[in-house]
Specification:
37% helix; 2 domains; alpha/beta
Amino acid sequence: MKSVIDVKNLSFRHKESQEYYDVKDITFHVKRGEWLSIVGHNGSGKSTTVRLIDGLLEAESGEIVIDGQRLTEENVWNIRRQIGMVFQNPDNQFVGATVEDDVAFGLENQGLSRPEMKKRVEEALDLVGMLDFKKREPARLSGGQKQRVAIAGVVALRPAILILDEATSMLDPEGRRELIETVKGIRKDYDMTVISITHDLEEVSMSDRVLVMKKGEIESTSSPRELFSRNDLDQIGLDDPFSNQLKHSLNQHGYDLPENYLTESELEDKLWELL
């Protein structure tokens, strides 16, 4: 499958006087339609990397190619149209007096007709399950509802790439699950490429590949299953999955379970086999 993002030998420092690099000579790609999670401790370079991809920051060296176009000062605004970004705090993203006004805001700069704008707003809100709230003030929504409206605002613009920068981190477990399910549906319906910066195991488990960043460099690339089989997850800013913790406890009580990572349903099947 063809890459939609190619990052080559990318380096960046927030200040030229810094001796260390926030992002240091990283190279990776993202395939069209893929869900890539980027994980690592705070300060590992995750958010800086996606801000470089979106053109919010300018690299010191290296190159970024989006859908065959090398990102430059001249084309950054055109390329940014292909990328939708949802941030950690939804309150910082609202500009409209109502939910539908907010989703329409980005479309107003694209020169669309009023009927087309209305159609896109309603389609996007319906897709994230927020159509019934279109006349509601954003301030009256829950955290999870606010993030779904923020995603609707991005989806209405029809980008090829959706970037979630710790978009689930301020939500409760139910809100996180709802948001992850929403993104799964959008990805399927629109064949969208997703990059998520996250510490959430459920979000990581939905991805096709996981990039681990450490001190501005790429430490490893793996599948979620390979990642969860590691015994040093705490060293890369992740908790141990519940199924790993339960398996370890059961092994200590005499159950003979495999060393490799098992999902909760796979662990349940193994236990039935042993009974």
